[in-house]
Protein 1
Amino acid sequence: MNNRNEIHNALVAWYKVVKRDLPWRKTQDPYKIWISEVMLQQTLVETVKGYYTRFLETFPTVYDLAGADDELLMKHWEGLGYYSRARNLKRAAIMLVEEFNGEMPDDLKTIRKLPGIGPYTAGAILSIAYDKPVAAVDGNVIRVYSRLFKIEGEVDQKEVKTTIDEIANLMAHEEDPSSYNQSLMELGATVCIPKNPRCLTCPVQSYCQAFEAGVQNDLPKKTPKKPKKEVDLYAMVVKKDDAFLILKRSEQGLLSGLWSLPSAEVSGDEKETVVPVDNCRHMLSDEIGIDVSYVRELGIATHVFTHIRWSIKVLEFNWVAGALPDYPETKWIRKDEIETYAFPTAYKKALRSGSLL
Ligand code: SF4
């Protein structure tokens, strides 16, 4: 690997000078590193800071997490998205307590057996908490290596990803893997950014093959994305006296296990044929067992997931008859009780546009 030592030295020296003061950089505790790395997946550093601190105040050890109340755990994850991450954290914590005496394993093969710990998180924990020379390849690192070594294939294709993994393994730093891996993450987050990388301030510019060829803005290449599925979501505010109805989503699928307003989804050709208010009434009658009367439209919102875009229409109904079922789990709550329940961001938007938040 050309310039391997020079790249190591330049990045580690640079990182030690410029590294941002982040709460998870003040520790080598594997538990805390693990929590931070899982939170940082798909989520911005500035957002994670507050969540990380609050999470560790409530769940300071793996034992606290293993015994966490599910509702409280979800409340601490509310707004971070990708909620399966929180459920996997608890499953892994239980496994750590039951099978590993509460200790995070320090080898790649064993740590990968824990739910939710993929190659990146494993590499990050092993290198940062245990100083093991293991690569940690996330989107930032893929971008940096694809530019440094001018890899021109589409990085989401398996062979190209394998090439980058091989480079990352060859580049793994034996003496200071923690600083080196974090320097790559830092470079990707602050200098070698997706658009208009700041090459003039880059510590490895003189080794960068993309910069030399003037193609840094064209890399990494990705397969064009499929358009997102457009879904109309009718979110129902069903009122009874001073309360309204909330429903816990099923344990499978999008936003599983979180609280929401009862909802009906309409997509594709159905958009032409379905009468929204009738559809909502049928949903409430067939799935929850209550009869309602329609009042009015309260507001609209949108929410975008990785593959789906929701156009949310919030409709108000009044309860007329029927008792709540055992399943799905439903509750009548007052406006001032909303904060007790973990709602995903999409439903917080719906609650806001219905003037409930
Ligand atoms: Fe990225 Fe530019 Fe540095 Fe190359 S020179 S690694 S493209 S910031």
Protein 2
Amino acid sequence: MKICVYPGSFDPITNGHLDIIDRASKVFDKLIVAVLVNPGKNPVFTLEERVQLIKDSIGDAPNIEVDSFSGLLIDYMINKNSKIIIKGLRVVTDFEYEFQMALLNKNLNPDIETVFMMTNSKYSYLSSSMIKEIASLGANIDEFVPDIIKNKILDKFNVRKG
Ligand code: ADP
């Protein structure tokens, strides 16, 4: 069984992430969305909130698991019996960082492959930081996140509108 892991901060999940999740879950037998416990960063949403927002967005999808991890991704992958990392690629600036990470992980464990999926052009400019910024300023985020989690995000910034 081909199990892949899609790691990230997901602070919060966006339609761009969901597009990658949907496509990768069709290519592989099982997909694990792995939310990174990032003590260094200061996430706006707690780990539990980030996991819950993803679960709410995905709904009932038998071959998708939502989990969290801390420490080295490759150690987590061994625990999960997976050898495939999924990454989404947006603009050219993503490439340099992701290229470095992929080579580093390959160096740490040569059995692990990183597979890149190009962003859907609709979401090429979309990032969690952008959602946070515009939501906190009271902008409409309907196009960028699923309806089911929209109000939870707006609540965080105290800008819920009907
Ligand atoms: P960000 O805070 O930049 O959204 P994450 O750590 O949550 O980043 O992202 C996890 C993964 O999802 C990364 O591989 C990232 O490139 C990818 N990703 C993020 N946004 C998009 C998007 N709009 N389209 C495709 N892939 C994306």
Protein 3
Amino acid sequence: MRTVRTIAELRAAVAARRVDGQSVGLVPTMGSFHAGHLSLMAAAREACDAVVVSLFVNPTQFGAGEDLDAYPRDQARDAELAAAAGVDLLFAPPVTEIYPDGFATAVTVRGITEVLCGDPDRRGPGHFDGVATVVTKLLNIVAPDVAYFGRKDAQQVAVIRRLVRDLDIPVRIEALATVREPDGLALSSRNAYLTAAERQRATALHRALVAAERAVAAGETASEPVLAAARAELDAAAIAPEYLELRDADDLTAVTAVTRPTLLAVAARVGRARLIDNTVLEPVPQPAAVPAAAGAPGEGAPTQ
Ligand code: AMP
């Protein structure tokens, strides 16, 4: 594995792989690798000839007062893990390489960035401007055939799919399942902020999602009872969520019932960590109405 720090070096290294028609996969990350990141690298390794991982703690996606300075960083360990995962190129640029003096452009995806994590009363859409801008730059720099993202950041995936369509960027976006601890907690670099007691409480996020899944599996479709089932788990762990919402799984519009695949997304502060998690609720298929005269044996009209 080669670690490169400049755009010119990375472009040259990717071009060298392209000469003999190799396919290229990109895994954008902010480092501090865990099994979630490694699952994306494994998928890229499986499907692509050349695997590029970017490691860049992107300052423009952190709001004022967020954890940019505290964000866990360990490039030596990350490089070892990436090499062991079969990564070919690790792109770890300094901030000035991505945002040189005079940098003045932002990519804004409207609508879907203004809810959930982008709600103006919470982090604001600026977070997703930062994400959309850096991902657009990475896609332009690497020009991969496939880029890999985690469904744990479901809104981020929706934003990236939107911008790739809107800006005609020729890349396939793969979104992979959330990797969890055995007790259900979604792996996250920010889990490092949790004390042992908070780490225990944090498992309530996953329990909340499972409670909602069970309610839907039992036939519930109205949003309030589904959300109440989830909220009860958060309450029991004394977690007041920043949001707990049902949204259309594709365009993130608000929904009032689970009548098709529906995203249930949660964000909550637990101690110093701001954690997010989600699941897609699949309504149980309703049996087709059976005409009275055509009832099964033992139903409907008397048989004698
Ligand atoms: P980050 O370094 O947190 O920006 O994450 C880099 C990529 O890894 C993003 O596409 C995330 O969605 C993905 N990711 C983060 N946590 C997980 C997880 N637990 N399972 C799967 N993918 C994840």
